[in-house]
Structures are given as structure tokens and as C-alpha cells.
Write a structure and sequence with these properties.
The protein is of the alpha+beta class and about 150 residues long. It has four helices and ten strands, in the order ββββαβββαβαββα. The longest helix has 13 residues.
């Protein structure tokens, strides 16, 4: 059975509609996903999230963001997930990430491939505007209840 170990970044901004969550538009398809990455050997899930946020958002991990010391939710299960034909063993750690410098926020605001999505949409819809919400990530959110529609 295939095993996946995934670190997933929860980057939140509070807006008029409640919490908004940072997602990234895929390069090859019109789908939005959370910033995430597979855990490398000898790497903690927290280090995975820090590596992926720094790389995918082009931010300085020592000065522009902070990954929480502990996971919001640590989810482990075996079963089928969207996009996979065979059941798998999955271990996902969801970490809150805070952007704490104006330059980091401005750099994110200027990028066309980053989209802030409301909690209710992530929990209840298949699409946000022209983009499909990554069904794999959405299934993890729904299973873990790490984000609820009222946030």
C-alpha cells in the first residue's frame, strides 16, 4: 500500500467574509491547492511546511513568516482519496503559518497565481470562480475539519 506523508500550510487572513485561506493556482490546470509538500526522509512535517512556503511563495523563512511549533491537526488514515485508484496510507500534518512582514504580504498580493478563498467555499463548493478546488486537499479539509465553513 502506498504511503504519503504530507505537510500542508494553513495561511489565513481575516476579511469581511470571515477567514480567507491562501491557495495557489496550478501551472498546468485551472485548480487551486494549498501550499503543501511531501515530507522528505529525516525531515519533520514542520520543516516540510517551512520549506514549501519559502520555495513556493519565494519568502525568507527566517524573516518573513513563522510556522507554528505544533500541527493544528495531525491526520492519519488508510483509505481511498480523490485522484487515486488504490487505497493508500496517508499522514497529513496541517500547520498554521503567519506572514509577519509587510514586504511578504505585498509580494503575495502582487502574484496572480495566489488566491484567497473563503472558508465556506473550501468546505462546501467544488469551484471558486474559474478554478476547481483541489478535490484531494478538499477531502483532507473535510475529513479533518481543520477549517469549518463558519470560520
Amino acid at each position: 500500500m502506498q504511503k504519503i506523508e504530507l505537510g500542508l500550510a494553513l495561511i489565513r487572513e481575516r476579511g469581511d467574509e470571515g477567514s480567507m485561506w491562501l491557495t495557489q493556482v496550478g501551472q498546468n490546470q485551472p485548480m487551486i491547492s494549498f501550499i503543501s509538500g511531501n515530507r522528505l526522509e529525516q525531515e519533520s512535517f514542520r520543516e516540510t511546511v517551512a520549506r514549501e512556503v519559502a520555495w513556493q511563495l519565494d519568502l525568507d523563512r527566517n524573516r518573513e513568516f513563522l510556522v507554528a511549533n505544533m500541527a493544528q491537526i495531525d491526520l492519519e488514515f488508510e483509505g481511498a482519496v480523490p485522484g487515486q485508484h488504490e487505497p493508500m496510507r496517508l499522514h497529513v500534518a496541517f500547520y498554521s503559518v503567519d506572514l509577519y512582514r509587510r514586504v511578504a504580504r505585498n509580494r503575495i498580493a502582487d502574484r496572480q497565481d495566489l488566491v484567497w478563498v473563503p472558508s465556506s467555499t473550501l468546505c462546501q463548493a467544488e469551484r471558486f470562480g474559474e478554478w476547481l478546488i483541489n478535490p484531494f486537499h478538499q477531502s483532507l479539509i473535510q475529513r479533518s475539519k481543520v477549517i469549518e465553513s463558519w470560520h
